[in-house]
Amino acid sequence: MAFSKEHLDALRSKYSGTAADMHDPRFATVAAAIFSEGGKRAAAFAGVPSLLAAPLRSVDSGQPDFGDLQVALMGVPMDLGASNRPGARFGPRALRTIERIGPYNHVLDCAPVQQLRVADVAYLSAERERTIDPDDNLRGAPEIVIEILSPSNTASEIFDKEKLCLENGAREFWVVDPERKQVKVSTPGGHTITYKSGQTIKLEVLGNASLDVDLIFG
Fold first, then answer.
1. Given the DSSP bridges, would you call strands 71-74 and 118-121 parallel, antiparallel or unpaired?
2. Which of 22, 36, 101, 152 is the most buried (most CB within 10 A)?
3. DSSP H or E stretch at residue 211
4. Angle at 54 between CA 51 and CA 60, to 5 degrees
5. What pairs with residue 20 in β-bridges?
6. What share of the chain in percent tops pLDDT 70?
7. Residue pLDDT, tens place only, 36-57
8. How far is CA 6 from the centre of its chain?
9. What would the pLDDT profile of 7-41 be if each residue is shown by its tens digit?
């Protein structure tokens, strides 16, 4: 493709400024949200790691309230399914440590962390919290474990993982079957219920909350 002198002069005139010049108004809005007037931003690896550098937020386990958020990120730094593969169990922490996937989301056309109300959240019941040594970490499985079936899963693998979780602190073990569009929920007492389309899962761990099965596969 050949450029005329006039075309080249127009390009030089447009892009002869500094690297900080933003010609796309969308990117300019994002840059204004991320960078200070001096062109600086928060150090990538400073402070406590959180998903996408979202601000940390404590949640009252008795009355969890996310009503003022537009986006809530939730992750559990645990691995019970990859023995002898330490990289897998460090994955959730690594995701937080890398600080962000990118400050700009082209689908939402914004910088989510800077322009939306976002928080990195996690659920822990008050009863479980009282058992934690303040000088130690949370041990055992999360209170809710969700396993999404894939073609590579075997029945024995799912059974072993369910048994391991329910014997180590999990109060519910979910097996989500995308092909059949159903969810099997098991509890430590050996009670199992399979929920299908049109039914509602009662989230007893979260009090009186509930979740429609159709919303999971919607």
1. parallel
2. 22
3. strand 209-212
4. 95
5. none
6. 68
7. 777 676 666 666 667 666 777 7
8. 50
9. 888 888 877 766 567 777 777 777 777 777 776 76
Class of domain 140-218: alpha beta
Residue pLDDT, tens place only, 181-216: 999 999 998 899 999 999 999 888 777 788 899 988
Q: Amino acid identity of 23?
A: H
Nearest to 96 by CA among 131, 70, 122, 116: 122
Q: Which one, of 161, 202, 203, 167, lies nearest residue 188 by Cα?
A: 167
CB 175 within 8 A of CB 149: yes
- The helix or strand, by DSSP H or E, that contains position 202, with its residue range, turns out to be strand 200-203
Q: pTM here?
A: 0.47
For residue 3, count other CB atoms closer than 10 A to its CB.
Answer: 10
Confirm if 8 and 82 have CB atoms less than 8 A apart: no
Alpha-helical regions (H) of the chain? 5-15, 25-34, 86-89, 91-97, 112-115, 126-130, 155-166, 213-216
* Token pair for 209: 């909350």
Domains of the chain, residue spans: 26-33+43-124, 140-218
